[in-house]
Design brief:
55% helix; four-stranded mixed sheet; 3 domains; alpha/beta; CBS-domain; 390 residues; 16% strand
Length: 390
């Protein structure tokens, strides 16, 4: 269960229980890869068959391999769907479910910091996967005992059941970005604040990452190395998000925003606008109509920078095609950061009622994070004891 990853290349496929579902283009590559793996693998693990490479009939082998890849994809979706359903039961808004090359993730609109809620949301995913795996093995046994003529169907359920149980067990590992990481953090939150619990869990995750990477190098297994890399990415993001959340908790946009909102004539050239912005430190500017002095549009310095330097002398700011984003001054800074990330904006215009009163840029956010970080490091906060070396 991952909350904040942003995949641009995704396709909307439907709505389940009011939750938008997307398939990332990389997910199609995952299905292809899994099909190839099951098609060629001719190994077993104790009594469990791991693939269909032993089948001589090319078409039968391909069909079983492809169906297994699709079945596991459906199981991953069910896993994420249970995350989303339980989250909604606790009143948490679910933004989307996205299936990607690394599996899938459920994106929540708010961070879950209540231990009981996070535990329930995290636990239900691997539990559902484990139950499905058990059901597949039950079907395998039934076909073996009563329907001998459907031997390959029995093998199909056996393979799907094994990998489903494997995914369930894997997700219980106490490591980010797996559900086990969230389970461990929620257990630690009873004695530590959210940031500290995340740091402790991250340290455990790094131990797993190093161990898996060492094994991967020793046995020259690319899958182990890829898994270690995924743990590193997921853990680093969770750690950064938790520290950021702790540093700016309860900080609002109005506490950080830049009130230097300039006015510029619509006849101002792009070059003049950039010179004005750099000279006075403006990140955003209101463009005024020369005929009635009304505000025509809002332009950021980043909108102007996108114009090629050869066109800046002749092009006017009124000709810029912009889609400004606005945020209320009383909004939490964490929510503003989410808007900046999701909409890929460098600057937001801050409003009070229907009036634009300032701007909020990425650099404003970075500045307050740096200032609060220094303040925390020089204070007696319990947070510093654990995260001094991050």
């Amino acid at each position: 269960m991952k909350k904040n990853y942003n995949f641009k290349d995704k396709v909307y496929v439907g709505n389940v229980f009011g939750i938008p579902v997307y398939i990332g283009l990389s997910f199609l590559f995952l299905v292809f890869t899994l099909t190839a793996i099951f098609f060629f693998i001719n190994q077993s693990f104790f009594i469990f068959v791991l693939g269909f490479g032993y089948i001589n009939n090319f078409y039968l082998r391909f069909i079983l391999s492809f169906l297994t890849a699709i079945s596991l994809s459906v199981i991953v979706f069910i896993h994420e769907l249970f995350h989303a359903i339980v989250a909604k039961k606790f009143g948490i808004s679910v933004k989307e479910i996205v299936l990607t090359f690394i599996g899938g993730y459920t994106s929540l609109k708010t961070r879950v910091e209540q231990p009981r809620v996070e535990f329930a949301i995290a636990m239900v995913g691997p539990m559902s996967t484990t139950i499905i795996g058990g059901a597949c093995f039950a079907l395998c046994l039934i076909f073996n005992l009563f329907f001998n003529m459907f031997f390959y169907i029995s093998i199909f359920f056996s393979v799907v059941g094994f990998y489903s149980l494997f995914l369930g067990a894997l997700n219980f590992l106490p490591s980010f970005p797996l559900d086990g990481g969230a389970i461990l953090r929620s257990s630690l939150t009873a004695r530590h604040n959210y940031a500290n619990a995340t740091i402790i869990t991250a340290n455990v995750s790094y131990i797993f990452m190093i161990s898996i990477a060492i094994v991967g190098f020793v046995i020259l297994n690319l899958i182990f190395l890829l898994f270690a890399f995924i743990i590193w990415i997921g853990t680093s993001q969770e750690k950064t998000n938790a520290i950021t959340s702790f540093l700016i908790k309860n900080v609002r946009v109005k506490d950080v925003m830049n009130t230097n909102l300039a006015l510029a004539s619509e006849l101002t050239t792009i070059k003049e606008f950039l010179q004005l912005s750099i000279k006075h430190g403006y990140f955003g500017c209101a463009i005024v109509n020369v005929h009635n002095n009304s505000i025509q549009k809002f332009v950021t310095i980043n909108d102007a920078i996108k114009v090629h330097s050869s066109k800046r002398d002749a092009m006017l700011v009124r000709d810029l095609i912009v889609q400004p984003s606005f945020i209320k001054e009383d909004e939490l800074l964490l929510n503003a950061m989410a808007v900046i990330g999701e909409q890929q904006k460098d600057t937001l215009f801050v409003t009070r009622g229907n009036e634009v009163i300032g701007t909020l840029s990425r650099s404003d956010v970075l500045r307050i994070l740096q200032l609060r970080d220094v303040a925390m490091r020089t204070s007696d906060s319990k947070y510093v004891d654990i995260t001094t070396n991050y």
